[in-house]
Write a structure and sequence with these properties.
alpha/beta, about 20% strand, globular
Length: about 525
């Protein structure tokens, strides 16, 4: 079995294979540490350890006292690349004292000369050296099916909901979570899978051997996790994290008993299931995380969910009316993700859904109706998609959500010409997406937040002259113009605009003549022109 993943930096591909092949290869990109399994010779092993044991990933020559110990370390690694990289990632986090290298050598010297034992004990050593706050974060990867692409935004929201993140001054919980993830990546325990347009980490993965370790370790330590692939599994009870994967969904009302009170998180991973009835949640009184996003539920929201008053993370895919659900009971909710599994049935949401006091991240379908909160909601950071429609000012007063960092707006129907003028008051906003539905004309706001870094426009049918407003945004480094965001045959940019723009995409446009020269877009790094047939 083998799986290839694209490294989007240079277009090359790297390969993971099972260990029954006798070849091993180190990927040159610092994003991924993926291997075939040929045993390396001593010199290759030393070069690989030298590279991974440095924080910048560049090949260097350690001082003589380090090299002597390091060559002894790689001798104990039996030429296994994954072992070498994990040890190198561990050494890179230490303070570079010979005594610590000597301690690592002593530890792995006690491992028996069997591949499986050496590999498992190496991971055990790396886990032992993890700070306490990272151990739970690492083991948590076990709730996802193996070889799963894990989106970083989702992972971070889950870590925050689980209470893994220790607060720090002048940093949000999400920023601290990203630091945690980067630490695990630097230790080579987690691999970067994809990067976004601005080179930030978009998704990550866990090597299947490391994934197996997480499952085993989580069970060893206080039975905190259970992964089930059967319909009825009595061992689910008494575990903190329950992950049901590729199995039947039990609808028995007695499935969970009173001993299920210990369950804090419940996941279901199977996107081929349509349900008319869910589990009974009545005994899961202390549940914090409920992820049913892959299940296609038929009838709005299961009524018992609103009684889970400790719930912090809720993801549900359904059709039907949700507006009658008493979501206001979920006073601890931090992340709410509601979507319809077919476009024919758009969700109708309660008008007070954004009034929940601890909401941090909200995601709805583009066509879902909602209102901005009645009171100022300072905790809300992400809102996508928010539907703006009609002449109702309640849908456009963005001063009620002053600390938004990411906002996606879907405009449907005629709106007031100044409907989006209050966007300028969102001083924390860094990422904005605007998509038009059935609207004849879109009025670009005269002023955007000065801190805006990323802007995506779709179906807005602006004139190229409107680019003057966007080009003067002082912090804009990413711009995407999709699906006739701008119309017209000719565009001549002006000097002094787009001074910070690094990434620019034009997708589907009738542009014929783009009169740009070396003075325009002075720091541009990536330009993508897609489906611009007339250009």
């Amino acid at each position: 079995m083998s799986t290839s993943f694209p490294d989007d930096r240079n277009g090359s591909r790297v390969l993971i294979t099972t260990r029954n092949k006798k070849v091993a290869e180190f990927a040159s990109s610092s994003d991924m540490w993926i291997f075939r399994t040929r045993s390396l010779n001593p010199e290759e092993s030393w070069k690989l350890l030298s590279k991974t044991a440095t924080s910048n990933g560049k090949l260097c020559s350690p001082p003589p006292e380090f090299e002597i110990i390091g060559r002894c370390i790689v001798e104990k690694c039996m030429g296994i690349p994954l072992v070498i990289v994990l040890i190198g990632g561990l050494l890179a986090t230490l303070n570079n004292s010979p005594s610590q290298w000597q301690d690592i050598l002593f530890t792995i010297s006690s491992c028996k000369d069997r591949f499986e034992i050496l590999l498992y004990n190496t991971i055990e050593v790396c886990y032992h050296y993890l700070p306490t706050h990272l151990k739970a974060c690492f083991l948590y990867f076990g709730v996802f099916p193996k070889n799963t692409e894990i989106h970083v935004k989702k992972l971070i929201k889950l870590w925050v909901a689980e209470g893994f993140v220790n607060p720090e001054m002048n940093k949000s919980l999400e920023e601290i979570s990203k630091d945690y993830l980067c630490d695990l990546i630097n230790r080579r325990l987690v691999q970067i899978h994809k990067r976004s347009s601005d080179r930030k980490i978009k998704s990550c993965m866990l090597h299947d051997i490391l994934h197996k370790f997480c499952l085993r370790k989580a069970i060893e330590e206080e039975d905190i996790m259970m992964v089930s692939t059967t319909e009825y599994d009595k061992f689910l009870e008494g575990r903190r994290w329950v992950s049901r994967q590729y199995g039947c969904w039990s609808i028995a009302t007695s499935y969970f008993t009173n001993s299920s009170l210990k369950i804090r998180s419940l996941f279901y991973f199977d996107d081929n299931l349509y349900l008319a009835k869910c589990w009974s949640f009545s005994s899961l009184k202390l549940l914090r995380v409920l992820d049913l996003s892959l299940i296609k539920y038929w009838h709005g929201m299961p009524s018992e969910i609103v009684n889970l008053v400790h719930l912090r993370y809720l993801a549900l895919t359904t059709i039907g009316y949700v507006c009658n659900s008493q979501l206001f009971k979920l006073q601890s909710l931090q992340t709410l993700i509601l979507s319809a599994w077919t476009k024919e049935f758009q969700l109708q949401l309660p008008c007070d859904v954004l009034d929940l006091p601890w909401l941090r991240h909200v995601r709805f379908d583009k066509g879902s109706s909602s209102y901005l909160p009645n009171l100022v909601q300072e905790n809300l950071q992400t809102l996508s998609w928010f539907k703006v429609t009609g002449q109702d000012s309640r849908t456009t007063n963005f001063t009620k959500v002053p600390n938004l960092k990411e906002l996606g707006i879907y405009i449907e129907g005629e709106v007031l010409p100044n409907a989006l003028e209050s966007l300028a008051q969102l001083h924390q906003l860094e990422k904005l997406k605007v998509k038009m539905g059935r609207v004849e004309r879109f009025n670009l706001p005269n002023c955007f937040p000065s801190n805006l870094k990323q802007l995506t426009l779709s179906n807005t049918y602006l004139s190229w002259e409107d680019m003057e407003i966007i080009g003067n945004l002082p912090s804009l480094d990413l711009l995407k113009l999709k699906d006739f965001a701008c119309c017209g045959p000719e565009w001549t940019p002006r000097d002094g605009e787009f001074l910070q723009l690094k990434f620019f995409l034009i997708e589907r446009s009738d542009l014929e003549h783009w009169n740009a020269n070396a003075n325009h877009f002075p720091v541009l790094e990536h330009l993508i022109l897609r489906y611009c047939w007339d250009l």
